[in-house]
Amino acid sequence: MRLTVIAPENVYEHEVDPSMEVRDVKALVEAETGTPVENQTLSTDSGVALTSLEKSLSSYGLTGNSATLFLTFSDHRPFPSATSGSSSTSDDDFERMRLQALGDPRLMNQLRQANPEFAAAIQSGGARFRDMVRHQAEDVRRTKEEKERQTELLNADPYDIEAQKKIEEAIRMERVLENMSHAMEYSPESFGRVTMLYINVEVNGHPVKAFVDSGAQSTIISPECAEACGIMRLIDRRFEGIAQGVGTAKILGRVHSAQMRLGNLFLPVAFSVLEGQSVDLLFGLDMLKRHQACIDLAANCLRIGNTSIPFLSEHELPEQARMRPVLAPEAPGPSTLQPQPSAGPSVTTPALAGSSRAAGTTQSSADIQTLVSLGATPDQAAQLLEASGGDVDVAASMLFG
Hints:
alpha+beta, 6-stranded mixed beta barrel, Ubiquitin-like_domsf
């Protein structure tokens, strides 16, 4: 249900459930206006005051797709807003803001990671916190003024083709951000990260964590891993060559047969020895098809016949395969080669494994911290910077646009 709260100087809208209690609605109003719950009076359009905090909205007849409440204040002092840089804001207001932040553990954890200086200011309080809030509010004000100035310039000449292109791009980006906001609200899991599929195997009696990749044409092993497994002496260098794809890597040769143990299974396997890859052993499509293997994501295992080999959890993965917070995409290099399907039937084609973000977009930690200090989450800040092409001012205007 869309709940519209009409205040003396503003209108607020929220998506709520009719079963929500009045106390929770007033908490939302407090978050929007800074007015304490005890200084709020909510009433329906028929004049019925919502006096009982424990009652639900539906108990006051507020049901259906939409409802309206009227809000009045009594003896309150407005909470300082993020866009208010007024020096007349009292110390009590700043202290209330600081305590509100301290009372939100999730927010504090995000600030400690993205903006430790601001998190420290919140914890210390005093003049340091006030100065940082005022400085950030001033940055927001300047960004907003710059956005308005740019809009005026674009609208000054309706026949300017370049201006119209910029307006078109601004409208397109607004639709993109709406689409992203919709996804974040209704399918937030799409913004999560998943770990790659690794299993424990033994090659020639040596334990190895193997990367299961149905997109790789052949099973691949690194020279270092082959040496550790004692099979480097079996390499047939007549099969050396170059694997080509988005990047290139040198194929040193082929080990025609070695023993691999998966659970209770002992399987013969052939390896292509490939330089310049970050994984020790890649369990490719040739082995998956040969043994009719099934990647069972529901059971989180690789099944071969009646044998199930569980996929490793994140803490069991090799160090280079564990997820880390990435503030900026890394340039692809030879050490990030991961095999992908090849164009030909006999050559394994590696591809450079880069960041999931656009390779041409760079995001500095300072820019992300700036947006986080303005109220964005780290992930939202990264998305905004990506959408704005790395321009922190444009990203900030998108945040408050």
